[in-house]
Amino acid sequence: MNIDFDIYAALGLALICKGEGRYEESADRLGALIKTDPKNYRL
Predict the structure, then answer these.
(1) Which residue among 11, 14, 19, 34 is least enclosed by CB atoms within 10 Å?
(2) Residues 2, 42: Cα–Cα separation, whole Å
(3) How would DSSP label each residue in 1-43?
(4) What is the spatial distance between Cα 15 and Cα 2, in angstroms, rounded to a whole number?
């Protein structure tokens, strides 16, 4: 089984962190996503 990076799963984890009040971790995760794909309009 080939497991690849899933941007939606990573974005979901950032939103879960935000919902749990872990804002700094959420911002870090979202910032890392933006750095890896700066042209992604979904971010």
Answers:
(1) 19
(2) 25
(3) ------HHHHHHHHHHHHHTT-HHHHHHHHHHHHHH-TT-TT-
(4) 25
| Residue tagged 């959420």 (tokens) | 26
pLDDT digits (tens, 9 = 90+) for 2-37: 677 788 898 999 999 999 999 999 999 999 999 988
What are the phi and psi torsion angles at 30 (to 5°)? -65, -40
- pTM to 2 decimal places: 0.76
Distances (CA, A) of 26 to 10, 11, 13: 10, 9, 8
Are 27 and 15 spatial neighbours (Cβ–Cβ below 8 Å)? no
